[in-house]
From TrEMBL, chain B:
Pfam families noted in UniProt: ABC2_membrane
Occurrences of domain ABC transmembrane type-2 (ranges): 26-260
The protein's name in its UniProt record: Transport permease protein
Subcellular location: Cell membrane; Membrane
Keyword annotations from UniProtKB, A to Z: Antibiotic resistance, Cell membrane, Membrane, Transmembrane, Transmembrane helix, Transport
Main location group: membrane
Length: 324, 260
């Protein structure tokens, strides 16, 4: 069986003056899956979404959305996508219901009255339906944005940082909706800065760094690739070197120091390393331990790691200044 | 994009703008009371210091204020467009399968509807301070048509500038600066007494041509002698100005909307 890719981009490029926001973005999102685009601020996530939703025209490369060429068949692309993001919102001067009616009309959805009531109900907006959207809380606003994207069921839903700025409860609601939609067969492409969000939702993750996909794979695959982070905080700064030597011996990784906190840490792919063993070994070496951590790496550490790898693997270091 | 699609989408966008007015009536009422306040202030306070008798000045002033208010369409168009752009509404609409001209067109037509309704209280206030239609009725109807056409042209100008704006605040500031435009025209004062170069400048202001046309068609004041061409031929001059503004700014606005 051949895989159908609902979003397929090859070498997408976008420049803003001197800044190369996208430097050849390749994406392949199979139909009915959730693809998480994960990356730090300025990596090009939002630019990628703006290109794929026809808001910007690429300077190079090509992409097809549900088989339609992004540039030549932009109108057809717009008929099959839904977009919700920080930069694409509903009209705050209209009520929730008025907004959904407007989008239903623009989407040419017939007999929208019952349909809209159902949408309001589904997103917990029935009570607030006749109040101006500008008075909604952040979570309600985002839910209304989502509902507006679903007035007509899109084949591809683009979510640009859908939970940034939301409280944990609202975040959970958005996640539930994304899972439901995926189960109903909608392809979802979402950008996020949160590793946890990508982990929770995405079937596949594309790590984007400086306008390019640095790595793709399932969350499990990427985690294994990146490993975990072991860190020791010591009582006496003089003991840092000793602690580093232990970490080096246990993991074979290169320790990095945080002298201000008197801490030393290392990234390891060794899944057999446990916290008790770490403590034992450090203690046996006479390190005056204040704190020991063994945890999945933060996104910052992941990117540091990936960019370090690439600096040695490829000759990309010369481009770093332009993307910063 | 077919005309049918444009009509469908445009009317949806028109509906949206009218809903906004219905949801915020206070804003519209405030906008519409402004020219009435100015009529009373200019008509009675400034009017008392002018060589022209007060009643005559107020008749002279009503068409001027009508046109000056219509010119505020630049500000309104700009502010609304900038608000939509910077709050993300424009981008959401751009991702929809919506006719590209529909959004600015809907905004411009909605503004026309609001202006047409909002002009009624001002005309009543004008009648209350002694202004009358002194010419034939068809000419007066033509005057109102010309007024709306000028408003339409101003709104398109504003929409284009609003789509270009860097922020809502910048649009608001530049928009407020447009209140200066009627000051350099014959809306509030006759231009005959101005120094030569300033008079020329004022008479080439589109507001002057439209104001003169309204005064002429309402029968409030004759076309001044020795004025620049648009004021000397006020109806033709006004139509030419409106056609020029629409021909330049409507396509620019649609293009800017379609391809940021």
């Amino acid at each position: 069986m051949t895989t159908t890719y609902t979003v397929l981009s090859e070498g997408l490029e976008k420049r803003f003056g001197q800044v190369r926001a996208l430097r050849g973005l390749d994406l392949a999102v199979p139909e009915g899956t959730v693809c998480g685009i994960l990356g730090p601020n300025g990596a090009g996530k939002t630019t990628a979404v703006r290109l794929l939703t026809t808001l910007l025209r690429p300077d190079g490369g090509s992409a097809r959305i549900a088989g339609h060429d992004l540039v030549r068949e932009a109108a057809a692309v717009r008929r099959v996508i839904g977009v919700t993001g920080q930069d694409t919102t509903v009209d705050g001067d209209l009520t929730g219901r008025q907004n959904l009616r407007l989008f239903a009309r623009l989407h040419r959805v017939r007999g929208p009255a019952g349909h809209i009531d159902a949408l309001l109900e589904r997103f917990g907006l029935t009570e607030a339906a006749d109040r101006a959207a500008s008075g909604y809380s952040g979570g309600m606003r985002r839910r209304l944005d989502l509902a507006a994207s679903l007035v007509r069921r899109p084949r591809v839903l683009f979510l640009d940082e859908p939970t940034t700025g939301l409280d944990p409860a609202s975040r959970g609601e958005v996640w539930a909706v994304v899972r439901e939609l995926r189960d109903e067969g909608t392809t979802v492409l979402l950008t996020t800065q949160y590793l946890e969000e990508a982990d929770q939702l995405a079937d596949d993750i594309a790590l984007v760094d400086r306008g390019r996909v640095a790595q793709t794979g399932s969350p499990r695959h990427l985690k294994a690739l990146i490993g975990s982070y072991a860190e020791a905080v010591v009582a006496d700064p003089a003991a840092l070197t000793r602690a580093a030597a232990v970490l080096d011996r246990l993991t074979g990784g290169e320790p990095s120091f945080d002298h201000e906190r008197a801490a030393v840490g290392v990234v390891t792919r060794d899944s057999t390393l446990t916290l008790p063993r770490l403590v034992r070994e450090l203690d046996a070496a006479g390190v005056p331990l204040l704190d020991v951590t063994l945890r999945p790496p933060t996104l910052d550490e992941v990117f540091l790691r990936l960019t370090d790898d690439r600096t040695t693997d490829e000759h990309v270091s010369d481009d770093r200044a332009t993307a910063a | 994009m077919s005309t049918l699609a444009l009509a469908h989408d445009g009317s949806a966008m028109l509906g949206r703008q009218l809903l906004r007015v219905r949801n915020n009536p206070a804003l519209v009422i405030l906008t519409q009371t402004m020219p009435i306040t100015m009529l009373l202030f200019f008509g009675y306070v400034f009017g008392s210091a002018l060589a022209m008798p007060g009643a005559e000045y107020r008749s002279f002033l009503v068409p001027g204020l009508l046109v000056a208010t219509a010119a505020n369409g630049i500000m309104t168009g700009m502010f609304q467009a900038a608000q939509d752009v910077h709050r993300g509404v424009t981008d959401r609409l751009r991702t929809l399968p919506v006719s590209r001209a529909a959004v600015p067109l809907g905004q411009a037509v909605a503004d026309l509807v609001v202006t047409a309704v909002g002009t009624v209280p001002f005309l009543l206030a004008g009648l209350a301070v002694g202004w009358r239609v002194e010419g034939p009725a068809p000419a007066a109807a033509g005057a109102l048509g010309l007024l709306l056409l000028f408003r339409f042209a101003c709104v398109w100008t504003g929409i284009f500038l609003g789509l270009l704006s860097r922020s809502e605040e910048a649009a608001g500031q530049l928009g407020s600066a447009t209140f200066m435009l009627p000051l350099l025209s014959n809306a509030y004062i006759p231009t005959g007494g101005l120094p030569g170069w300033l008079r020329t400048l004022a008479e080439w202001n589109p507001i002057s041509a439209v104001t003169t046309a309204l005064r002429d068609l309402f029968g409030n004041a004759p076309v001044p002698e020795g004025a620049a061409w648009p004021v000397a031929h006020p109806v033709a001059g006004s139509l030419a100005w409106c056609a020029l503004l629409i021909a330049v700014f409507a396509p620019l606005a649609v293009r800017r909307y379609a391809r940021p």
